[in-house]
Design brief:
heterodimer, A: mainly alpha, three-stranded antiparallel sheet, 8 strands, about 45% helix, B: about 350 residues, mainly alpha, 14 helices, about 0% strand, NADH dehydrogenase activity (chain B), transmembrane helix (chain B), membrane (chain B)
Chain lengths: ~400, ~350
């Protein structure tokens, strides 16, 4: 179509300018008297209605760990209804993976749950390895397991401090950050990245462990175990903390499972389910001796207790791994340009925040055809509207903190 | 009475006193903020705290912070009630200024030795809640409004234990004048031994603890900091304030903490008095003695502040009405019985 055939568009300049009818020519807008009465009634109702106040917690709010928005309807301090609004941080990772090669995808999925990035890479790499029918050598598996547990410790140490901060105690937060720093230094010295290691390769790992890492890790695990004792005394044993968290935000086990809540949140509701033990065997977990902790209460206190015990257990697991660490290569034989044969694979792992899974569809080639990411926090926060009914405003913050979600993990 | 009062004219004396009061609030806020907020908290939380500004241990940091606040843009929300919004921080700080009027720092060094000194100090201290309510209401912000209403609810609950805790001291001293209470402690004796006088903390230890708990609530410090509750209400009634108006709230907060610490030191620790020091030397040493005692009390306050989590609003009310007030009443009854018996 040429430009001459386009219909003429009126402009507000030039000789053809038509300003339209004058404002004086437009008749005044008349409202039906009956309607007017209704409007007046509505106004009065709005003015006299002191029952509800709608308040936006977020997207910019210190208790929402990022950009979660909660539209909360309040009666005084009591929550009548809460509606989580997500998507402020949606980055379209599932679509982006379709335009990346397999090694490039690990860089992306690092950023899903940015506090435990290494644990995010594992299930995806595992899925690709399953499709290619290769397996990483035992030493690589052990190092992967150790780094996964270290990232779990780093995440939980932050939680243990952060939860104190959210119920009003400033000090635990700094202890949490301080001790997490040691763990992050370990991850950095092994992988080169504090937050986003991007260390996994399909078929193994990028590098072997640096010299002296194992001895240093043993020292840091002592620090972590001491830190857990500190948190037990300072936070868990505090009467005010107990008053604030006991019987606040109870998730019944069955209901939680039906909402898709997973990980420590579900174990705190008495459901004895841990993918490291109960799922398809992955990494070095079948060879480890560890305990799965559950708590019958299902409240915020139970979630804190379970995560505290799991931090300890993870530290013990890391020590076990260091003792059993086999020698050998860290890479399987893989072609330089990775091509994954056609097929579908589903791998789920127990990440710090809960069950994380990747459904990878390959049509042969250097990149995946489609990746479905099942992240833990998305399902964990889906129970929020149910949990937040009838609680007080401070409890909203306690519940948000105790569910422990990462916005990147919700929105992806 | 004193050399000073005779030689200096009445008008000059008043001007001098007013100047001291005007200086003591920001100065007290500065000292407490530096000592406890920047240094003690940093040590407790194993972080460095500012160490660079000014050379020695970052002493200049708070002054620099103050200067920073002064050059910030003064933002008033569009829907705010402008005049109330602007006046609210002033009300808060004025209540702090007024508290210092009755606190004695020496045998004569007091601005006004009122006969109802304790009563006046506690009454004036609760004026600040009016400022807080004004701030919360005029900000046109729901978080601010909730914070202000929480502050009001807290005041009603905690003014009573605060007053009842002091009643025991007043009964024991037989006067409401703060000067009278100090001299009652200085000239008292413990079972006939008058070596250190009779600081009321020994006989009124329950009153002291109640006073400290209630003062913590009055100052809205952790575990009773729901009006500002950073993790819930962002900053409560202060959420819309910026620049020097926010600085006023800051000065008000720490200035009131100074005032309450001084009041507690006066009521329970003997105030400016030092055993065996009388006359002119007491006049000169008085401010220093009171300052040391005040810092001791403030240390307790801030120690609690940096250790405990925050209570919930309904739990706070329950503690006040079911726990503190009955204990305070029992304390009064016991004090009365002992007073009459001995």
């Amino acid at each position: 179509m040429s430009t001459t055939e386009q219909p003429s568009v009126p402009t507000n300049s030039g000789p053809d300018f038509n300003p339209g009818p004058d404002f004086k020519d437009i008749p005044a807008f008349e409202v039906d008297p009956g309607l007017q009465r209704h409007l007046a009634d509505a106004r009065v109702n709005v003015e006299l209605d002191t029952g509800d106040m709608i308040i936006n917690l977020g997207p910019q709010h210190p208790a929402t760990h990022g950009t979660l928005r909660l539209v909360v309807r309040l009666d005084g301090e009591r929550v009548i209804a809460a509606d989580p609004v997500i998507g402020y941080m949606h980055r379209g990772y599932e679509k982006l993976t379709e335009f990346r090669t397999y090694p490039q995808v690990t860089t992306l999925i690092n950023r899903i749950d940015w506090l435990s990035s290494f644990a995010n890479e594992v299930p995806f790499v595992h899925a690709a390895e399953q499709l290619m029918e290769i397996e990483a050598p035992p030493r690589a598996q052990y190092i992967r397991t150790a780094l996964t547990e270290l990232s779990r410790i780093a995440t939980f140490l932050l939680f243990l401090g952060e939860m104190g901060l959210q119920v009003g105690a400033l000090t635990p937060a700094f202890y949490g950050f301080r001790d997490r720093e040691h763990v992050l230094n370990l991850i950095e010295s092994a992988t080169g990245g504090r937050f986003h290691p991007n260390f996994n390769r399909i078929g193994g790992l990028k590098d072997d462990l640096p010299w002296g890492w194992i001895a240093e890790t043993r020292n840091v695990m002592k620090i972590v175990l001491d830190a857990c004792d500190v948190f037990e005394d300072l936070v868990l044993g505090n009467e005010i903390f107990q008053a604030r968290t006991r019987s606040v935000g109870i998730i019944p086990g069955e209901l939680g499972a039906s909402y898709g809540v997973s990980g420590s949140n579900l174990r705190a509701s008495g459901v004895d389910w841990d993918l490291r033990r109960d799922g398809a065997p992955y990494l070095a977990y079948p060879e480890l001796d560890f305990e799965v902790f559950t708590h019958p209460d299902g409240d915020s206190f139970a979630r804190y207790w379970v995560r505290l015990q799991e931090t300890r257990e993870s530290a013990r697991m890391v020590l076990q791994l260091l003792d059993k660490m086999p020698a050998g290569p860290i890479m399987a034989k893989v072609a330089r340009i990775i091509k994954v044969p056609a097929g579908e694979a589903w791998v789920e792992t127990e990440n710090p925040l809960g069950q994380m899974g990747y459904y990878v569809v390959s049509k042969g080639g250097t990149g995946p055809f489609r990746v479905k990411i099942r992240s833990a926090s998305f399902s964990n926060v889906s129970i929020l509207p149910w949990m937040l009914r009838g609680v007080y405003v401070p409890d909203v913050v306690t519940i948000l903190a105790s569910l422990y979600f990462i916005l990147g993990d919700i929105d992806r | 009475m004193s050399v000073l009062a005779l030689e200096i004219g009445w008008g000059w004396m008043l001007a001098f006193k007013a100047l001291v009061i005007l200086m003591i609030v920001p100065l007290g806020a500065l000292v407490l903020g530096y000592t406890f907020l920047l240094k003690m908290m940093s040590h407790m939380q194993s972080r460095l705290g500012p160490m660079d500004p000014g050379g020695f241990h970052g002493w200049f940091q708070l002054v620099g912070d103050g200067l920073k606040f002064l050059q910030k843009e003064d933002i008033i929300p569009e829907d705010a009630d402008r005049r109330v919004f602007a006046f609210a921080p002033v009300v808060v700080v004025i209540s702090t200024f007024l508290m210092f009027v009755v606190i004695p720092v020496g045998p004569v060094a007091v601005v006004a030795n009122l006969d109802v000194g304790v009563f006046y100090a506690l009454a004036v201290s609760s004026l600040s809640v009016i400022g807080v309510l004004m701030a919360g209401w005029s900000s046109a912000n729901k978080f601010a409004l909730m914070g202000a209403l929480r502050a009001a609810g807290q005041l009603i609950a905690y003014e009573l234990p605060l007053l009842l805790a002091v009643v025991g001291v007043v009964m024991q001293a037989g006067t409401m004048s703060l000067q009278g209470i100090v001299s009652a402690q200085q000239n008292g004796s413990i079972f006939g031994w008058s070596g250190i006088g009779n600081p009321f903390i020994f006989t009124q230890i329950i009153g002291f603890l109640l006073f400290m708990i209630a003062a913590q609530a009055e100052l809205s410090q952790t575990p009773f900091d729901m009006p500002v509750a950073e993790s819930e209400l962002v900053a409560g009634y202060m959420v819309e304030y910026s620049g020097f108006r926010f600085l006023f709230f800051f000065i008000g907060e720490f200035g009131t903490a100074t005032a309450f610490a001084a009041l507690a030191a006066t009521l329970f620790l003997g105030g400016w008095s030092l055993p065996g020091v009388h006359g002119l030397s007491a006049e000169l040493l008085g401010p220093l003695v009171l300052f040391v005692k005040l810092m001791g009390v403030a240390f307790l306050m801030f120690w609690v502040r940096f250790t405990y989590p925050r209570l919930r609003e309904d739990q706070l009310q329950a503690i006040a009405w079911k726990f503190l007030i009955p204990i305070a009443l029992a304390n009064i009854i016991i004090t009365a019985i002992i007073k009459v018996a001995f």
